[in-house]
Structures are given as C-alpha cells and as structure tokens.
Amino acid sequence: MIKTDILIIGAGPTGLFTVFEAGLLKLKCHLIDALPQPGGQCSEIYPKKPIYDIPAFPEILAGDLVENLMKQIAPFQPGFTLGERAETIEKLDDGTFVVTTHKGTKHQAPVVAIAGGLGSFEPRKPPIEGIEHYEDCGVEYIIRNPEMYRGKDVVIAGGGDSALDWSIFLSNVAQSVTLIHRRNEFRGALDSVEKVQELKDLGKITLITPAEVVAIHGENTVKAISIQQGTEVLKKSCDHFIPLFGLAPKLGPIADWGLEIDKNAIKVDNSLDYQTNIPGIYAIGDVNTYPGKLKLILCGFHEATLMCQSAYQRIHPDKKYVLKYTTVGGVEGFDGSKKEAPKAVVKAID
Amino acid sequence: MESDIKITIIDREGVSHVVDAPTDMNMNLMELVRAYELAPEGTIGICGGMAMCASCQCYVLTNHQLPEKSEEEEAMLAEAFYVQENSRLGCQIHIFPELEGLRVQLAPES
Fold first, then answer.
1. Residue A263 and residue B40: Cβ atoms within 8 Å?
2. Model-level pTM?
3. Domain B4-106: CATH architecture, name and number where available
4. Record: contact B81-A124, CB cut-off 8 A
C-alpha cells in the first residue's frame, strides 16, 4: 500500500503543480497516471507546440513546461504510479481513501485530488466491424510484449511514430511485417520514416499505401485481413493486426465514483476550494466544471493552489496556518534542500 | 451583429442548427460548435484546435471555397475514422464572411 497525504490522479501540468503547492505546506504527494510519462496532453499530444498564455512566459513549448514543472517539484519528492489507470475508490472507516489502479496497485490518502484532464488516454479503435471480437485474440492496440510476435505475420496500421517505430522494431522479431497507411506520407520523425524506407528496400517491411484495413477474418483468432486499396480489396493472411491510431482521452472509471458529473466533467464548489460532492475528494484543472469554468493550464494552477489550502485544513484541522510567500520563507524540500533569497549585504560607508 | 454570418451545423444526432457565427473573433468551426454546445464537451476539440486529434472532423455539404488543407490536417485526416472526400477538421476552418450559408455535418465520435 502506497501512503501519502494528497493522492493526485493525473500527472498533467495541474497535477504536477499541486505537488509544489502541497510541498510548501509540508504535505506529501503521490501521482497516478495512465500514461507512461508525466505531463498529460502536453507530453502525449503536443510537446513541441508553443503555449503563449502561461503568465510570465511569453512563449514556452508544452514539453518544456512539463520539464520545468518536474524540476520545480523535485525537492518535494513526489511518488509516481505511471502507466496505470485509477480504477476504483473506497472510503475507509478512518475517513481516508484507497484508490486501486487497473493493475491492482493500492494507494491510501486522506485527500484525493483528481487532476485527470479529459480523462485517461485510451487507444483509438478503428470502426472495423466485429473488431472487438478479436481483441487480445490477434488484435492489439498496445504492444505490451513484443516477444509474442516472434515468428508471426504481423500487420500494423497507422501513420505516426508508434506505427513506424513498432514496424521497425518488429521487423527483427516477426516473420513478416506489413505496414498499412491511408496516405503515402507519414507524419512520424524523419529518422523513423527513413529507416522504414530502408527496411522496405531490403524487403524486411512490406508497405501498402494508400490503403486501409476494412475487415478482419478468422473463427476465433485473426487469420486474415481485407485491405482496400483504391477500388480493389485484397485479402492477406496474418496472425496479428495492430492498429496504432494514437490515443484519445476518456473520462473512464472516474465517472462511476459517485461524483456529480456535468458535461463530461466533475462538478466542484468553485466559491471555496474545488471540492466535489464527496468531502475529501477535489477536482482541479480541465476535469472539473463550475459556472464560468475555463479549461486553461493557468486556471488549473490557481485551482491547485486553493485546493491545497483546503486539503491542509482537512488533514490538520487543529493547526493554524498563515500563507507564506516563497520570497520570504524560501522553499524547503523534503530532500533536505533549501532555496531562499540571498541575504542582503550591508556595508558601511567610511 | 453585423459581422455575423449564418452557418448550419448538423449535429451527431442528425439535428440541424442554424447559428450566428462571428467573423471578427478569430474563431474556427470547432469553437463555434463548442460555443453553441452542439456536441458534448470532451468529445470535440480535445487537442484544443491544433489539428492533432480529429475529434472535430466534419463533412462539408456546400461548395464554399475553403482554405487548402495544411500538411498537419492532411496527416490527421489520414488517421481519422469515418473519413470521406468532403471531410475537414473544424478547427482548421476559420470563420470568415465568405462562409455565409456554409453547411457542415459533424462526423461520428471515435
């Protein structure tokens, strides 16, 4: 059981900044995220896009924003459970919550802060008739164990980095790799595109473009697929079909936690502390809604800051606290580090 | 408003809505759909309008002259589902006066 003061669900910018504000109040944080890396959408969807509305940053790349946040919170030694989706929540008799991920990892905390953005990222599934029938029986949306493709005939569909990278990787593992994309152009990194070209020339990857997989065949497991190229449809036998069309966020299991939901977001009390209808559970950032809500990173930072004050009072009901400025109190990390303003040098004039 | 134009948006349930669209607010079609709440939040404009998610895909039903697709839009449409000849990403279509009378239909959620 992982124990912490504030359990944060979602490691996007809002979730990460919560660690800082909590740290100033000497509260420890642990973050859960379905993605394998922190940063949420900023890392997953648009790391190279500039953001122009972060106060005091005329321009900052989304990826750099995440990197800076990670640096800023490092002294507060947050814990991370990455690549796992928060699945269930349970309230214990002592008032604390236990959140369990889809892999069974348990986390306990008196305060839960949901900073889940638009939800956890799930693979986008192509609308091919009956595809769900073959899921994990030859159709995989995520490659978890490359070894299972050894000696197999594999078809990958998609035009981005993951389609290219896995085609390259599996060309050394599988018996055959066929990459299918609806255009001749690929939007992945140039290196990967060139590598696929090279492997295609060597006959190690079969490229079929512009084309699309339109049907899957096989009794219980994938035996073949139909590929539409122009007006022609050709059938190709294979053992695995791996559609890699990126990820899309879905609110997912959080929707069943008994929280008040409106417009795919969690209702909170914005006049006070961004608490949900369940005391002790807060929702901050893009995942929440209230009158006048704006889904902006800068609003998420503000919400995180106010929420931490309320969390502090909840965790320490008998303690008095006065807001301190970092310019005055500095930043004392849990790692023993201390940052503070240099003392002014006073020198007399003779 | 004088600078408004009329645009018809057919939502995912097939219901047609004629809406006033401002041409002076640097708005795009995806934002217009969200402003009038014609698709549930969280199902449209997920990437915020960067041509990176295809959740705002729509079919253009009139012959209006639209801006050419950028390389990013082409790439995204090549990985979207339910794509047709007249598919565009709503976030890439800025609202300007010549779009008066434009009719679009939202593509299914995917």
1. yes
2. 0.86
3. Roll (3.10)
4. yes
